[in-house]
Amino acid sequence: MDSELSSWFSTMFCFMFFSFTLLFSLFSLLIYVLRLKLWCNCEICQALLTSSWTKEFDNLCDYYTHLLKKSPTGTIHIHVLGNIITANPENVQHILKTRFENYPKGKPFSALLGDLLGRGIFNVDGESWKFQRKMASLELGSVSIRMHALNIVKSEIESRLIPLLSSVSGNKQVVDLQDVFRRFSFDNISRFSFGLDPGCLKLSLPVSEFAEAFDLASKLSAQRALAFSPLVWKVKRVLNLGSEKQLKEAIKMVDEFAQQMIAERREKGFSENNDLLSRFMGTINDDKYLRDIVISFLLAGRDTVASGLTSFFWLLSQNPQVESAIRDELERVMGSTIIRRFNIRVANPDQAPKFAPGLTATVRGGLPILVQERGA
Ligand code: HEM
């Protein structure tokens, strides 16, 4: 009789426990959906829900820019996504400076890039971010690493960029400058981060498996953000399906490559080298953490530099008067022979060319990091 009673109690307990868990989950889901306001009838939400914005705009950034320009506060609220987007300098200062601690990147954001970036600087908050930020400022600010970067860029220009451009201009061939600058930036940032030269900008324009895997992994990680709900890509990841399967394979290639680089450095010794990996190895022993840190640097310096240069030359092609101003300024400050040989040495910073208004216009309007996400 006792055992029957106790089995009845345990069945009841299990039943009540599962019922409570189920009801609580449903209630949480309801609150989540209510907060998203999925049925919102406002103009912006309707445009997004029906995709009607695509009739007037090529991409979402242009649409948001249009809305931000119209908004008297420089801020818009996307109810269906639960997002606030602001271009108001006071808000930006508040979020990124005054109350920086209150606005971490947050878990939803770091989950998107987590498989690729791990605990790298772009994907962490708090102490881990502070530590990497301090290390990065220290390293990137040092004179020796700046000289190292300058030497890498100079040799890439002299031995690859100029010969490539000369060869196509001699044959009156057309070249895709964006592709050239992507190769240029990948060679530079890989040499700077790992001390490895992938040779993407060699005259034959070879395919680099590492560059391709890295690009695919970055693209597919970013595309996760476009899924209707994070559940979609998370389920695909568990089942190893479609884009998530591709992403897993691409990340595996990146990992293998990074592990190989780290192992080689450990074997040959790192104290003599100036690349970031060698310098970080002096303080960090955890190889996975080293991999994460260096991969973030690759991401930081790849598309940013490539698209900055592409926008800069595109703007120049649209503004011939700026091109002549830059040429005049360079000749005046440095002399044409020096420029031709790319042996640029600036002794006095006051004399360094300011590159007329060209570069600042690019930095203001043409760079790829248009949005920074923060949680609250
Ligand atoms: C024209 C080229 C570049 C542009 C426009 C650019 C822009 C930016 C922006 C807007 C951020 C802030 C991102 C955020 O907090 O969400 C950032 C962060 C960062 N950038 Fe760059 N960047 C460029 C090149 C580079 C290069 C070449 C490196 C490395 C060698 C680099 C290293 C970093 C690092 C380490 C951070 C993380 C800082 C942090 O989270 O505190 N960047 N960059």
Automatic annotation (TrEMBL):
<comment type="similarity">
    <text>Belongs to the cytochrome P450 family.</text>
</comment>
<feature type="transmembrane region" description="Helical">
    <location>
        <begin position="12"/>
        <end position="34"/>
    </location>
</feature>
<dbReference type="InterPro" id="IPR036396">
    <property type="entry name" value="Cyt_P450_sf"/>
</dbReference>
<keyword id="KW-0560">Oxidoreductase</keyword>
<keyword id="KW-0472">Membrane</keyword>
<dbReference type="GO" id="GO:0016705">
    <property type="term" value="F:oxidoreductase activity, acting on paired donors, with incorporation or reduction of molecular oxygen"/>
</dbReference>
<dbReference type="GO" id="GO:0004497">
    <property type="term" value="F:monooxygenase activity"/>
</dbReference>
<protein>
    <submittedName>
        <fullName>Cytochrome P450</fullName>
    </submittedName>
</protein>
<dbReference type="GO" id="GO:0020037">
    <property type="term" value="F:heme binding"/>
</dbReference>
<keyword id="KW-0349">Heme</keyword>
<keyword id="KW-0503">Monooxygenase</keyword>
<keyword id="KW-0812">Transmembrane</keyword>
<dbReference type="InterPro" id="IPR001128">
    <property type="entry name" value="Cyt_P450"/>
</dbReference>
<dbReference type="GO" id="GO:0005506">
    <property type="term" value="F:iron ion binding"/>
</dbReference>
<keyword id="KW-1133">Transmembrane helix</keyword>
<dbReference type="Pfam" id="PF00067">
    <property type="entry name" value="p450"/>
</dbReference>
<keyword id="KW-0479">Metal-binding</keyword>
<keyword id="KW-0408">Iron</keyword>
